Amino acid sequence: MSQDAGMDMAEVDMKEVELNELEPEKQPMNAAAPPSAASGGEKNGVVKVKVADDEADAAAAAAASKFTGLSKEELLKVAGSPAWVRTRWALLLLFWLGWLGMLAGAVVIIVQAPRCRELPVQRWWHQGALYRIGSLKAFQGQPENANGSLAGLKAHLDYLSTLKVKALVLGPIHQNLEDDLAKTNLLQIDPTFGSQEEFTQLLEAAKKKNIQIILDLTPNYRSQSSWFPPNQNEDVNGKMKEALSFWLKAGVSGVQVHNVQNLADASSFLPRWNNLTHSIDEDKVLIAGTGASNLSEILSLLNETDLLSSSYLEDFERRSSSGQELKELVSDYLSAAGGRWCSWTSSQVGHLASYVPARLLGLYHLLLFTLPGTPIFSYGDEIGLQVATLPGQPAEAPVMLWDEKTLGPSESVNLSMTVQGQNNDPTSLLALFRKLSDSRGKERSLLHGDLVVLPTQDDLFAYVRCWDQNERFVVVLNLGTMRQEAELMMPPVPSSQKLELPEKATLVLSTQGSHQEGSVLPLHKLPVAPGEGLLLRFSYVA
User: Fold this and answer.
1) Where are the beta strands (DSSP E) in 393-513?
2) Which SMART domains match (predicted)?
3) Is the overall model pTM greater than 0.85, yes or no?
4) How many domains does one find in the chain?
5) 227: closest CA among 254, 256, 260?
6) Are 287 and 307 in contact (CB under 8 A)?
7) Cβ(333)–Cβ(374) below 8 Å
8) Could you tell me the CA-to-CA distances from 339 to 118, 300, 335, 336, 443 in Å, in that order?
9) φ, ψ for residue 89 (rounded to 5)?
10) β strands within 84-179, DSSP E
């Protein structure tokens, strides 16, 4: 056969795939026999496979099976049908009904939700404790015959900032010759305390620590009476007005005068000085101090200044009387004060340990920090500094015990009585002071909340501090010498307060550490050790 004929035979419509070389296991049983020609000249083992050469046929088939949807005319015909029109209206109606329902629900929630009380206007002196440093020398741990300086006070600002106090009440430090008005200069710092430049540096450094400086301008402070004779009052008034203007404009945040019970016609002068203070800056404060403990005498001065420190609690503290009497004293004072902002301190100038037994110091810290008003402390109260109980310790201005060698190498002091000894002790009075001061500045119920006194046994004084929907606090104080089980319950209160005591509350702190902080304690049978104070918290429930 010629080569051209062979090529013609290969070009057929169907392509042949010859499987001539079969695997041995797939050979036919008669593989040994000579292959016989199949009909039509085909060989044994040849498989014919059809492969479509024209891909256009496959594309046409796919196009024929693809869904093209309805045409525009068909859609319009269906959309206009009665069934579809009714469906559309039903869906639209359901949408608007759902929207109106959600709107009505939101309105009901807003109307029924308890409204937040408007926050009262508060100045910085309402927001934390004040810390009195009457003697620069004593605060710096120096005896009275040594020099205390403004620069030395500046070096202690880091420590003071850990106490979280809002201001230092400093001095008096101005020039004063006892009972000599002509040689009393309220505008000049006594050189034994430092210079005007050092005072300015102290102001700037304290400001960086967020500590305000209040300057005591009691004019005749080296005298027993602290003031000059009544016939010199007009001259004193002139000097005071000049000094107020000078120091407030120089950067101090407020002025204090103490022993105003010895100032003739104080109720006339104090309002004038108060008005002058606020005419310079509304954010400046005037503080008056009185040695009076009689409530009527105190109330006569309460409206004349921004803050009034008094000796109201002094007699009670000396007696260490019952919780029932303390409850009556506090309730009477708050009731008589009405809406006026109060302050709480052991006395107008003294130290807490001078009036309170050592076993009750922690309890009184808790009391002063949690009553409505501004707590005022003297330097050393945070460590329980005692007056004239140690050799070498002066009576009127006790030396601050920074460490066991403060009083000199010959006078050893128990380390637990010093700042150094208490600084890292979580059970110390200093640690308690810091924790209470921090809470007082953060919690709204303690800042400006209502006070509700709870009925208790005679040795106990208990109350709740609460503000709107914020966390509430329960304070329980045992002034007695016996362990008590407080059975706390709410007295009748206005329905607007919506205040109910829970069965249990969480312990924030104990002044004696008799309970673990964070533990949950029952309020119907709450164990309180003698001389112990407890601070507990519970959440608002709508």
Assistant:
1) 450-454, 460-466, 472-478, 484-486, 504-510
2) Aamy (SM00642)
3) no
4) 2
5) 260
6) yes
7) no
8) 15, 15, 9, 9, 20
9) -65, -40
10) 130-133, 167-170, 174-177
- Of 390, 416, 442, the residue that ends a domain is 442
Task: Assess whether 345 and 459 both reside in one domain.
Answer: no
The sign of the CA dihedral 128, 133, 138, 141 is: positive
Instruction: Write down which residue in 442, 466, 490 finishes a domain.
Output: 442
Cα distance between residue 286 and residue 341, in whole Å: 13
CATH number for position 191: 3.20.20.80
Rounded Cα–Cα distance for residues 345 and 306 (Å):
15
CA distances from 108 to 100, 101, 102, 118, 223 (A): 12, 11, 10, 22, 68
Q: How much is the CA Rg of the chain, to the nearest whole Å? A: 45
Structural domain range at position 462: 452-538
Helix (H, G, I), strand (E, B) or coil at 523: coil
CB 303 within 8 A of CB 439: no
| 162, burial (CB in 10 Å: exposed 0-12, middle 13-18, buried 19+) | middle
User: Phi/psi of residue 309, each to 5°?
Assistant: -95, 140
Give the number of other Cβ atoms within 10 Å of residue 106's Cβ. 10
* 293 and 355 inside one domain: yes
CB atoms within 10 A of CB 148: 23
Q: Domain check: are 481 and 435 in the same one? A: no
Q: Give the bridge partners for 453, in sequence order.
A: 463
The per-residue pLDDT string of the chain (542 residues; one tens digit each, 9 = 90 and over) reads 444 444 444 444 444 444 444 444 444 444 444 444 444 444 444 545 454 455 666 566 655 566 566 677 777 777 777 877 788 788 888 999 999 999 998 888 877 766 777 888 889 999 999 999 999 989 998 755 556 689 999 999 999 999 999 999 999 999 999 999 999 999 999 999 999 999 999 999 999 999 999 999 999 999 988 999 999 999 999 999 999 999 999 999 999 999 999 999 999 999 999 999 999 999 999 999 999 888 988 988 988 999 999 989 887 877 667 899 999 999 999 999 988 999 999 888 889 998 899 999 999 999 999 999 999 999 999 999 987 655 555 556 888 999 888 877 767 788 899 999 999 999 999 999 999 999 999 999 999 999 999 999 889 999 999 998 899 999 999 999 999 999 999 887 766 566 889 999 999 999 998 889 999 999 999 999 999 999 999 998 87
How many other β-carbons are positioned within 10 Å of the β-carbon of residue 43?
A: 13
407 and 483 inside one domain? no
Query: Do 268 and 302 lie in a common domain?
Result: yes
451-504 pLDDT, tens digit each:
999 999 889 999 999 998 899 999 999 999 999 999 999 887 766 566 889 999
Same domain, 510 and 477: yes
DSSP state of 368: H
Spatial distance between the Cα atoms of 523 and 185, rounded to a whole number of angstroms: 58
